[in-house]
TrEMBL record:
Protein name from the UniProt record: ABC transmembrane type-1 domain-containing protein
Species for this entry: Hungatella hathewayi WAL-18680
Transmembrane residue ranges: 7-27, 69-89, 101-122, 128-147, 191-211, 223-245
Xref: Gene3D superfamilies: MetI-like
InterPro entries given in the database record: MetI-like, MetI-like_sf
Cross-referenced PROSITE patterns: ABC_TM1 (PS50928)
GO biological process entries: alkanesulfonate transmembrane transport
Protein's UniProt keywords contain GTP-binding: no
UniProt keywords, alphabetically: Cell membrane, Membrane, Transmembrane, Transmembrane helix, Transport
ABC transmembrane type-1 domain residues: 62-242
Membrane topology: Multi-pass membrane protein
Database matches in Pfam families: BPD_transp_1
A cellular component annotation (GO) from this entry: plasma membrane
Chief location bin: membrane
């Protein structure tokens, strides 16, 4: 019985992909003008590789998008972890700046695009800033939750052994909060990769989001589908990489 269950969980993902592909074939055969066939999508990918759009190779579009996400994510992770630790560890900080953060946090990152465009124009910095805003709040929230949810018994043990506040924070609180912190960073990667597409649709000359916007302008559905698959594959690879790093740095969680 156990072997059958293991076989099911091994085969199920491939069956899901096959069903998706069959559904794609069926829909594209009925409305090819709105839903390009797999063959048409593949041909558009080859054409995009042979004749770059906007004189920028496909790999460079991908690299430009990744660069924006990585820069924003590194900045958001460092700032977000520090801010979240202070929120969870310092009641005064949480009551002041933490309250201000809770007011600003629900605002969607896309809602900032008009203001940021007016303030900073349409260069590289505004795009990175939009991604930073969207990922920063996720890292802060998860870090704060991880710090605030540390078992009080662990803190009591540290106090019994006369550990200083700094020692309690670095040797008890942070290791206990690390899984939540990495969970927030992993979520931020997916969100950042999604936000960059919206950011690149405003005044960008390269990037995967720019390609989707150009495909919409040209009514090139095959180009849009190619970019959507690229987005999905890269997003999955980023998630796998983040999970691998989490397992390496938090082995006790596995």
């Amino acid at each position: 019985m156990t072997n059958k269950k293991n076989l099911f969980y091994y085969v199920a993902p491939y069956c899901s992909i096959l069903l998706l592909f069959l559904g794609w074939l069926y829909i594209s055969s009925t409305k090819p003008e709105l839903f390009p066939t797999p063959a048409a999508t593949w041909d558009r990918l080859i054409l995009l590789l042979e004749k770059p759009l906007a004189r920028v190779p496909l790999w460079k579009h991908v690299i430009n998008s990744l660069r924006r996400v990585v820069i924003a994510l590194v900045a958001a992770s460092v700032a977000g972890v520090i801010f979240g630790i202070f929120m969870g560890w310092n009641r005064t900080f949480n009551a002041t700046l933490g309250s201000l953060f809770q007011i600003i946090r629900p605002i969607p990152p896309i809602a900032w695009i008009p203001l940021i465009t007016i303030w900073f124009g349409i260069g590289e910095f505004p795009k990175v800033l939009i991604i930073f805003i969207g990922t920063f709040s996720i890292v802060v929230t998860n870090t704060y939750t991880g710090v605030a949810m540390v078992d009080p018994l662990n803190l009591a043990v540290g106090k019994i052994f006369h550990a200083s506040k700094r020692e309690i924070l670095t040797e008890i609180v942070l290791p206990a909060a690390l899984p939540a912190i990495f969970s927030g960073i992993r979520m931020a990667i997916g969100v950042g990769w999604a936000i960059v597409l919206a950011a690149e649709m405003v005044g960008a000359a390269s990037g995967v989001g720019f390609l989707i916007f150009r495909g919409n302008e040209l009514r090139d559905m095959s180009l849009i589908f190619v970019c959507m698959f690229i987005i999905g594959i890269i997003g999955a690879l980023l998630s796998v990489g983040a999970s691998w790093l989490e397992r390496r740095l938090c082995p006790w969680k596995n």
